[in-house]
Hints:
The chain is an alpha/beta fold and 276 residues long. It has nine helices and ten strands. The protein has helices at residues 30-42, 50-53, 60-70, 86-102, 134-144, 176-188, 206-216, 232-245, 255-269; strands at residues 2-7, 20-24, 46-48, 73-78, 107-111, 127-128, 161-162, 193-198, 223-225, 273-275. It has a five-stranded parallel β-sheet with strand order 7-9-10-1-8, sandwiched between helices. Strands 3-2-4-5-6 form a five-stranded parallel β-sheet, sandwiched between helices. Helix 8 (232-245) packs across helix 9. It is globular.
Amino acid sequence: MLAGIADDSLDGPRVTNVADIFVSYNQSDRTEAFWLDGELRKLGHTPHLHEKEVKGGGNFMAWMRERLDAADHALCVISSEYLKAKHSLLELDAAINEATVKGTNFVLPVIVKSCAVPRLIAPFNPCILHDVSGEDRRARFRDFMGKSAAPARTPPEGVVASNIPIRVPTHFMGREEALADIETAMARHHGRVAITALHGLRGVGKTVLAAAYAERHRGDYRATWWLRAETEAGMRADLVGLGVRLGWVGADDKEEPALAAVSERLGHEGDGVLLI
């Protein structure tokens, strides 16, 4: 069954498979970081940016430790400002330390502004983007990520695709009844599609509730996929990203035909997919 939760509250090869990627950047490079976020999603990866996941008052240090520990790679957006900022250097040091356990290709340095690159970054073969633009820039980054060849059309058996960007609190309590209601609503329909909507005033916790359901039931679905429906461009990119992750389309396919293919496959092969 294709399932969906609607939440109205949200405004040589380097990487050979789709991956969870921790993105480290300085605020001055925010535009670059968000561009890289979009490109990573088009390639089927799941990037994690603190601005999208750590809400006001959230514990940034705990988020960083958790995301770095779980990440397949850490992509560092390098500039002179990045190399001067204490929190950025803290993330870079933590990523390099993690690389001693996970391997040198854990760290993916992307240099977005001309700067004096520290020697400690050189062994990681950084991607230089500050001297190119447009399609040349996109092609260079994709080549760096090792995704120039289309991925296998069938995901590895047993792999559950997920791109949920919301961190559910470790002790998420007091919402058991609401979670049970969602589960009941999802099981109510015996057809091909089950839909439930979360509604309420802003700030009551609809977003985290949807993420908590997805996390708790991840094993029930072959894909739990978050769509950025605030804009058409975001939703289209995330749908194509789902198609790449499930092997329905290639990472380099043009958006229009890829989106059409994903829509058709969801209509005929959407069993076990949860869209939020």
